[in-house]
């Protein structure tokens, strides 16, 4: 058994005023600690215990779930990568509420600049969408939806998928969005609860489905198998 001695010298400077008489520390005592190191390397033992779990995780992350028939890129105001994510959310939301008007995903929530042509692994989608964001449906009044669209326009664009083209130019915004109407919008909980400067959404009720954005995209890819870049412009 090997002993390792650590000498810790504790200096404590305390000035306490009690009856106008200062209290002082007149001395200190060194404290000796002994550390036992055994022949078994504890860190190595932990590492070995994690091997089967790491192997299982690696196999899961390396699983091929789809094949990209072209390059998918993240761009503004519209992009093939943004369309991939937003349309997956729109299609999912449509199965829950047939009146869905649009799916809107914040630009910063997509964390990869592109997905290259070729195989797509489960791990790649975890890189693309690393956050555990849940999908929610929010009933948004036309006035607030216009505010949202204007904010998206000011930022250069977000991934949006809708049943119809949405103009985000101030002079034509009212042609597609009416102030008095209520629009069912699918988005992520982070945005619906005020994230990315969307405080105006806090007041609305939210319908949760216990479905993560990442899982929805993975499920979509597993079903489609071969995916093609979609250049459709939803925003202009």
Q: What structural class do helix, strand and pairing data support?
A: alpha+beta
**What order do the SSEs take from the amino end to the carboxyl end, as H and E?**
EEEEHEEHEEEHEHEEHEHE
Number of strands: 14
Helical element count?
6
Detail the poorly predicted runs: 1-21
Approximately how much helix is present in the residues?
Answer: 25-40%
Quick check: average pLDDT?
Answer: 84
- The Cα radius of gyration reads 28 Å
β-strand percent reads 25-35%
Q: Tell me the major beta sheet.
A: 5 strands, mixed
Beginning-to-end CA distance, first to last residue: 73 Å
Query: Biggest sheet, strands in spatial order?
Result: 11-7-12-10-13
Principal-axis shape equals: globular
Give a verbal description of the structure.
This protein has 236 residues and is of the alpha+beta class. It contains 6 helices and 14 strands. The strands form 5 sheets. The chain has a 5-stranded mixed β-sheet with strand order 11-7-12-10-13. A hairpin with a 2-residue loop joins β2 and β3. α2 packs across α6. The longest helix has 20 residues. It starts with a strand and ends in a 9-residue tail after the last strand.
Topology:
Elements: E1 2-8, E2 17-18, E3 21-22, E4 31-37, H1 42-61, E5 64-68, E6 72-73, H2 80-96, E7 100-104, E8 114-115, E9 118-121, H3 122-128, E10 134-141, H4 142-155, E11 160-162, E12 182-188, H5 189-192, E13 207-212, H6 213-224, E14 226-227
Parallel strand pairs: 5-14, 7-12
Antiparallel strand pairs: 1-4, 2-3, 5-9, 6-8, 7-11, 10-12, 10-13
Helix pairs in contact: 2-6
